[in-house]
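Reading a protein record of the kind used here takes only a little practice. Think of the row as the fold of the chain written in a discrete alphabet. With that in mind, consider the following protein and its fold in token form:
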Amino acid sequence: MTTLSDVLNIDVPFPTTADLSLQIRLGPCRVRFTPTDGPSFVAGTYSDQTRTLPLEVQTQDGVVTISQRFAPMSFSTVDVPQLELGISRARPFALDIQAGASDNSFDLGGLPITRLTLKAGAARFETDFSLPNPTPMTLLELGMGAGSFVARHLANANFGELRLGGGMSASTLDFSGTLQRDAHGRIDGGLATVDIVVPSSTSARFTAKAFAAGKSVVGLTAKGDAYYTAPALEGKHPLLELEVSMAFGNLTISAT
């Protein structure tokens, strides 16, 4: 489905396959997600006043792909296209988002996401898990380019494994929320600034390696080669374990 009109209405029914996946591929675009209880898997609108970035919506073997296609016309950066999607909470699904030169902020709270991949280029990206994910997430994978990234309430994502790779980026990772099970994460940054915040009431253990990078740890207790919150020192679970490796950047870890 492709259109060059100003507004495209999107209505994608649930595929009949057992496994669901939603893939979103975007360049310049502003995005808003809203959890819904509607009958459709994905529904919403796409507005492109420039008529230079038409949207394609395809479904194949349980995979729904929503992507922008560049049209060889005069492109204006003044009226950036807007994509508003209502995503159903009725069935668990995997979510894969790749964004280029965009400025996006959206909330994934309450959506039953089984696996999340989020990769951004020269973009400003903010995401929030304001409500707990009702489905265990096997992997939360984040890849950042030369932009900025803010993630809030990451404990609510209900992930088992987290991976983050950042180049020349500025990332803020807020692990507030409620851990539902033990979780492990690995964060690698080069020429990056990474700020990690965890509530002091969360059981968390950090190991941090910094090569030619600044490191600041506030509100945690050093023991051996690791840093602990008070509940982690007491051996409480669920436990958040994070391994952080930084080169030529700056790392801050704080418990508040």
Notes: The CA atoms of residues 203 and 231 lie 5 Å apart. The chain has a mean pLDDT of 88. The first strand starts at residue 7 and ends at 12.
